[in-house]
Amino acid sequence: MIYLDNAATTFLKPRAVYEAVSRAMRTLTSPGRGGYGTAERAAETAFLCRERAARLFHADGPEHVVFTFNATHALNMAIGSIVPEGGRVVVSGFEHNSVMRPLYALGAKATVASGALFDTEETLEAFRRAIAGGPDAVIVNHVSNVFGCIQPVEEIAEACRFYGVPLIVDASQSAGAFDLDFRALGAAYIAMPGHKGLYGPQGTGLLLCREPPKPLLRGGTGSLSRLPSMPDTLPDAGEAGTHNMPGIAGLSAGLSFVLEKGPDAILRHERALASALAGRLKRIRGVTVFAPEKGHPSGVLSFSLEGIPSEDAAARLAARGIAVRAGLHCSPLAHETAGTPGGTVRASFSAFSSMRDVYALADAVSAMV
Amino acid sequence: MILIYPLFTYAALTKAQKAALALKRGGIMASVIRAPGVLGAEGCAYAVRALTDDTEGAMRLLRAAGASPRRLYYPDEGSDRWRRTS
After folding, report:
1. For the segment A304-346, what is each residue's pLDDT rounded down to a tens digit?
2. ipTM of this complex prediction, to 2 decimal places
3. Do A32 and B17 touch (CB under 8 A)?
4. A247 strand-pairing partners
5. 8 Å CB contact between B70 and B86
6. Closest Cα to residue A257, out of A49, A102, A94, A114?
7. Which end of chain B has fewer surrounding CB within 10 Å, N or C?
C-alpha cells in the first residue's frame, strides 16, 4: 500500500514506537496508583513523555502537558475552559468539526476570519479586525487539514496578547513538523493529537495548558483523593482515570524521534513531496490543484478531478493500492471558505513518505482522467 | 552517623517528579515516593525524599524550578513519626 493519509493518522511509525508500546503492555501499570515497581516505571514513563513534549513545544514545565485521547478531546477541554455559553469567538476559515461542534453545543457566536486560500496577509488582516472587537476567545487552526494552508499563528497570537484575548491553537496538522513555541505564543492552550505528526499510537493526544483546564471527565487522579472535586492543579485537573500507558510510552518514543530528527527537517521533506506532487498534478488536464503558485507550505495537499466525485476518485485510487482521503475531511467550514462544496481528494505526507509515492499517485491520477 | 533526610510533600505526582529532577540536576540524590499515610491528610499525596543535610539549598533549587513543596518534614529521630517544619 502507498499510504498518503498521514493527516488522518501516520501509519508508519518509528520502530521504537512499536517496541515501546509492546514493552509497556508487559511492564507498566498505572502511574500514581502504587509504590511498587510497575507503577513507578509507569510514572517515570509518563513524566519522560511530558518532559519531551515540554521540550519540543517550549512549555514551562512537564506539568503543563496534559494527556488526552486525541486532539478532539484536547480541543473540547480547551474550549470548555474558556468559551462561555453563548460566548463570542473568532475562528479561522479552516476549523475542523472538533472546534465547530463544541462551539455549536455552547451556542457560541463564531466570527470567521479568513482571506483567500493561501493569502496569509489577508487572513491576518481579517483576524486583527475581528480580535479588536474583543471576543471571549480566538481559536485558530494552525495548518488546515484540508488544504495545508498555514494561518499566521505568531501574528494572531501577538494580536491576542495585545487585546488580552485568550488563544487556543489547534496544532493537529502542525505539531511535529512546525516550530511551536508555547511560551512565546502566550496561548492559553495548544491542542494536538499524538497519532499524527508526533508518530504516537492512536488514542493519544496532548493539551498544553497555561492554567489548569476545566475537567471534561471527573474521577480518580491518584491525588488529593479526599476532595470531592477534581484537583485544580496541573496536569491532574485534566486527567481523570487510568492513563493509556501503552499509548503514552509509544507517544514518548514518537516525540523522541521528532526531537532527534527536528521538525524543520520533517517539514522540509514533506513540503518537497507536496510541492512535487502539486507540480505533477497541475500538468494533468482535468485536475484542479489547491496550491500556491510555488512551493507548497505543508505536507497536506488537496485536489479535485473534473467529472469524478472525490469519494469515487479515492475509491479508485484505493483499488490501485493508494490510500488517500476524500470528501469534506470533517471540515465543512474549510470547503465553504475555499468554495469546494463537493469536497476534495487529499494526499498527506509524513517523514516516511517518499518521492516514489508522489510518482505513483500522479501516475494513477493521470490514468483516471 | 545517621543521615536525617528531609521529605518534601506534593499533592500531584508530576510536581513531585519535577522536584526530584530539579534536586538531581542540582547534585542532590532524590526519589519520589507515595507520601506516608499520616502526611496525606487530604488523601493520596507524594513526597520527595532527598539525601542532603542542606535543606535550604534544596529549597532554593526547588523554588528556582517552580516546584516548591506543600510541606517539609523531617523524620523524628528514634521514632516512625514525622516532624513538620513548614
Report:
1. 999 999 999 999 999 999 999 999 999 999 999 999 999 999 9
2. 0.85
3. no
4. none
5. no
6. A49
7. N
- Give A28→chain B minimum CA distance, Å: 16
Superfamily of domain A263-368: Aspartate Aminotransferase, domain 1 (3.90.1150.10)
Question: pLDDT by residue (tens digit) across B34-56?
Answer: 888 767 777 788 999 999 989 99
Residue A9's alpha-carbon distances to A198, A244, A347, B71, in angstroms, are 10, 18, 12, 44
Residues 6+ apart with CB under 8 A from A193: A70, A71, A74, A172, A175, A204, A205
- % helix, strand, coil for chain B, step of 5: 30, 30, 40
For testing contact with chain B, the best of A29, A64, A224 (most B CBs within 10 A):
A224
Question: Is A61 in Cβ contact with B66 (below 8 Å)?
Answer: yes
Query: Which residues neighbour A144 within 8 Å (Cβ) at sequence distance 6 or greater?
Result: A94, A150, A151, A173, A300, A331, A334
Residue of A36, A40, A41, A47 to mutate for B, most B C-beta atoms under 10 A = A47
Q: Are A17 and A250 in contact (CB under 8 A)?
A: yes
Q: Which domains can be identified in chain B, with CATH numbers?
A: 7-84 (3.30.70)
Contacts of A219 in chain B (CB under 8 A): none
